[in-house]
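Reader question, answered in our methods column.
A reader sent in the components of a multi-part assembly and asked whether the whole thing could be modeled at once rather than chain by chain. We filled in our standard form and ran it. Here is what they sent:
COMPLEX SIZE: two components
ENTRIES:
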Amino acid sequence: MNPSASPGEKSRLIDIVDLWKTYAMGDSEVHALSGVNLQVRHGEYLAIMGPSGSGKSTLMNLIGCLDTPTRGTYVLNGRDVGKLDQDELARIRNREIGFVFQTFNLLARSSALANVELPLIYAGVPPGERHERAEEALRQVDLIDRARHRPNELSGGQRQRVAIARALVTRPSILLADEPTGNLDSKTSLEIMVLFERLHELGNTILVVTHEHDIAAHTARIVSIHDGRVDKDEAVRERMLVQRARA
Amino acid sequence: MNFLEGVMIALGAIRANVLRSFLTLLGIIIGTAAIISVIAVINGLNLYVKENIANFGPGVYVITKFGIITNHEQFLDALKKNRDLTAADARAIEQNCDLAERVAVEVHTTRKVSRGANEIEEVDIGGIDPGIVDIEPYEVEEGRNVNEDENTRGAAVCFIGQDIVTNLFGTIDPIGKDMRVDGREFTVVGTAKKKGSVFGQSRDNFVKVPFGTFVRIFGSRRSVNISVKAAAGVPLEESMDQARVVLRARHHLRYADADDFGIVTAEGVNDLWENLTATIFLVAVFVVGISLVVGGIVIMNIMLVSVIERTREIGVRKAIGARERDIRLQFLVESVTLSCVGGAIGVAAALALSWLIRTYSPLPASFPLWAPLLSFGICVAIGIFFGLQPARKAARLNPIEALRTE
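And here is the structure of the entire assembly that came back:
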């Protein structure tokens, strides 16, 4: 399950074949996705791009197991997750997926540490271990000294780092970031991308959904979605490595 | 842990908006406080009646002309049918009932008493067998009770209550002094300990004289009360049956006739009283129940608002792995916590209220431990019942739509 458990092996993490998502709008049907094929290996760092209405959000919801496809198969980590019930999907989201949202979505009344602990509560991890793991995740995003702060006492970038720690704490198979820099200024955005780069180098699989080329250029592969189909799927030739660029 | 977290979230929500929470919980607070206060007051009333009205000694019953009368028709019927009881009836019971250890009569009238310029209208004058002190003890403050010798002689002596002492004698020691009862001179031989008042009526406004003296002065045409102490170790019922048989024989009642006298026991008075208060209690519970239901509906409303306000939070929780039952539990715990906080405040209010009643009224108002426990149980039930719908609504939210909510 954990990518770091098998670092040498480039096995398939995501295998999506002919995925359809159809919504009924009155009498007519709207195809948000019409036959998407996508394969992602362990340890990849990729971006999904596309204009609004292209279906990239729908695709992300399906990859994130927030929704089930109308047709087609989606195998995550060897398991067909297209036909699971709500409780099983919740379990997959808890164990396999770490969400990072554009608006951070931290619980306002809870401390940074409590926010990071939250997924472990649903995983049934006992309090002592939960605490240690949450602190370890905060250490990974360099925010251990802000553990007791509430979200409103943190800057935007710090909040997003707390959210990333929350996504990492269950050691998921994939980090799913939906416009992670959409609410941040360019300097802070860069900080977040540096953090993603570092996490990628540590062996995490990261999928960023964005409409900004600058952000997508940090990744190793860009999948462009257009009208519910994969339009282009190519490796980034001139990858922007922030750490190297700075050095 | 999820449970404790729910409690903390609920308490946090209450703290975050104290006024709104207070208003939300008002129904539950009032309902709980009212229900416990009613229990406390009724409990106090029962205790009060037990201690102050139905306070015959153990194994004692009193035979009277009317017994316990609970309605007007019963009274008219008894007035027509029941015969006056006499000292001879008492003697007959004393001689023929081996299950009656002591028998004594007491007869009452209301007269004016005076001493010099001081006088008191409407004083309870009791003519007593001196032996009655073995059945219904009068606690002596000073001096002594009237005795058998004085009874036989019809001596003009009396034993007086504290109201008489205060109003006729003031600071003078009354023992051995004279006073007038209905114009006749009596010598005070003793005074009773202060008894205080029951339902605002003083119980120290009395003069006891020997029965013989009473009859000599006021005549023997009043019905007497016959106090009987059952023989030790004998069930009260058996002793009562024996006395009843004697009286029925003396009154020439046929087999099918009803008793033409009444028997009062402490138990009988208590039963009557507790029946009455049980009815009051049921009515009160019903009224208070309405307040609790309204309180529950308000909690349901605030929980529905809370679900809408926190739609996004629910979406986040679902995205990071909360199952439907986790969300449902969270909101249920929250509504139960809310209603229990209301219950706790209600219990505190009831505690304060019954303390006030206890301190500033003669009623020993207090509630048994089961009362707050019961109301807590009710609060939990209300929290679950009225929290279920909002919790279900929260649990069923679609995570994608919930996350999209602004």
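What stands out: Chain B has a mean pLDDT of 88. Chain B touches chain A at residues 1-2, 5, 9, 12, 16, 312-313, 315-326, 399-400, 403 (CB under 8 Å).
Send us your own complexes using the same form.
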